[in-house]
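User: I've been trying to design a sequence by hand for this structure and keep getting stuck. Would you show me what you'd pick, starting by listing the structure so we're on the same page?

Assistant: Good idea, let's start from the same input. This is the structure you sent:
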């Protein structure tokens, strides 16, 4: 039988209520704001999350970069440059930004076609957020949003592993000896 959008939405939300950790690979495409004339940037790598706040991204292309964070601090490590940057964290990780509005019952949902939904949420810094779903409608496989600079960002999430066992040490970062550390 055909489900109504509300039923499909509830099914999707219920599935994500059970999400504790997520691992997989990602491709991020950033299309610069219309007026800049810059080429799109494409990043590829792997991700690991432990909800609500822990994450680790290993970027392999175009340059190697490790991004490790929790609810208060994010580290950016550039091994080829022997450089690490430590930042205070003040907003959610874009790659995970869809989970909160997905679970928030005050979000407004619009279907934009088969497997594409638009979420609008007054509390989210990434609103509106466009989600791409798998054919069963139960897994988010992509998300698109426009950042505060007007760039369009699209993440594709591949080879997802739900609730893998996760060690806390994945989310700790100690700069290797000889690395320059910057604080922002």
């Amino acid at each position: 039988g055909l489900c109504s959008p509300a039923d499909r939405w509830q099914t999707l939300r219920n599935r994500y209520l059970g999400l504790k950790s997520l691992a997989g690979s990602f491709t991020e495409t950033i299309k610069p704001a219309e007026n800049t004339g810059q080429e799109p940037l494409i990043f590829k790598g792997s991700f690991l999350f432990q909800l609500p706040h822990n994450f680790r991204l290993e970027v392999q292309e175009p340059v190697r970069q490790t991004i490790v964070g929790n609810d208060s601090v994010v580290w950016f490590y550039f091994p080829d440059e022997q450089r690490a940057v430590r930042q205070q964290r003040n907003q959610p990780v874009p790659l995970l930004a869809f989970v909160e509005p997905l679970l928030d019952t005050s979000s407004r949902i619009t279907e934009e076609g088969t497997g594409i939904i638009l979420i609008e949420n007054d509390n989210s810094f990434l609103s509106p957020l466009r989600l791409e779903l798998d054919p069963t409608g139960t897994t988010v496989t992509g998300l698109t949003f426009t950042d505060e600079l007007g760039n369009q960002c699209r993440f594709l999430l591949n080879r997802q592993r739900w609730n893998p066992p996760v060690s806390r040490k994945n989310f700790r970062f100690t700069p290797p000896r000889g690395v320059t550390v910057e604080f922002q």
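That's my pick for every position. To get oriented when you compare it with your attempt: The chain has a mean pLDDT of 90. DSSP finds two helices and twelve strands in the chain.
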